[in-house]
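for the writeup, i need someone to sanity check this before i put it in the appendix. the sequnce is what the collaborator sent (i think, or maybe the updated version? ugh). structure was predicted straight from it, no edits. if anything looks off just tell me and ill rerun, i have time this weekend
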Amino acid sequence: MTITGARVIVACPGRNFVTLKIETDQGIYGIGDATLNGREKAVVAYLEEHVIPCLLGRDATRIEDAWQFLYRGAYWRRGPVTMAAISAVDVALWDIKGKAAGLPLYQLLGGASRSGVLVYGHASGASIEQAVDAVGRYVAMGYKAVRVQSGIPGVRGAYGIDRGDLSYEPADAALPSETLWSTPAYLDFAPKLFQRVREVHGFDIELLHDAHHRLTPIEAARLGKSLEPFRLFWLEDPTPAENQEAFRLIRQHTVTPLAVGEVFNSIHDCRELIQNQLIDYIRCSVVHAGGITQLRQIAGLAALFQVRMGCHGATDLSPACMGAALHFDLWAPNFGIQEYMRHTQATDELFPHAYVFKDGCLHPGDAPGIGVDIDEKLAAKHPYQAKQLPIARLADGTMWNW
């Protein structure tokens, strides 16, 4: 089966998505997500100028060879732009292989390891009470796990607060907007938030929280220790992971489970964290960590050290990515949980999909391939809009980690 064409589709049904579509001489096509939030056009150029010309005429069934060609064949390896492009190719080729075989992707990977994929939703509010109420709404929808974020007194533009429609999209302007951060205010506030959530909703619901790279290692250790009475499922991104030894210090002071990895691009970014058992969940995403092909390698490494998978799944990843992730999750023996931030109706219409939510879990469905398509006519009605992620500063003007 020969690749005869490939093109990039950019659409903005409220936020920008980059989709690669690969076509073959047998009339079978596949799609893959190539979105890099706030840097979408960089991936578009990489695909159109450097990747697609190398795909034409290649055997679409040789997925591993295509992956190695695009990774090893590029002297400048890794990085978010390169790996988003490789991921899109990889998922599109797996989609094609599944359609040719008449099987859903999870069957090609080895079959299901579970009946459904446990997911968590995003509950937030401008205040503690609003956040507590939001948790209740997710519980009422059937969720068994909920991430909780709240506005913080003294913090302008606190991370993770939705606009009241179940979706959270921080990329909001052509140039980065500015938020104001205060670590002392946050560290004092967070335990009060989770104490109140547990008082109202008890311990039957799993709770998660994202510190979003804001803390130093010792600050993260303090937060993890202060949250131990409230039994979090995980504390996400407690400190920037460029310095992986930082997680050793956090580990020395708290037993709150740690999760990290949504900004990782390859197995090398998480190798030491996994091998030294400094984390409990690895959060690499299909679209940013090399597609299904490399995510399987990461899962295999993680399984050796009892680290579980918890793939990133925010709305800056398209339904094509979510569909692929769910097939991977259904198969992965060491799966833990899947982030599930619901897309808008406009996005769901643009990407018809087979996955369904029931009783706190998602199932990818049994459509051949990844079970997600793209409506190109509808995509043409949603042109690209320049949008970037915010930045954060401290009260004295110092740049901080957003």
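The chain has two domains: 3-104, 108-368. The longest helix spans residues 80-101.
thx in advance!!
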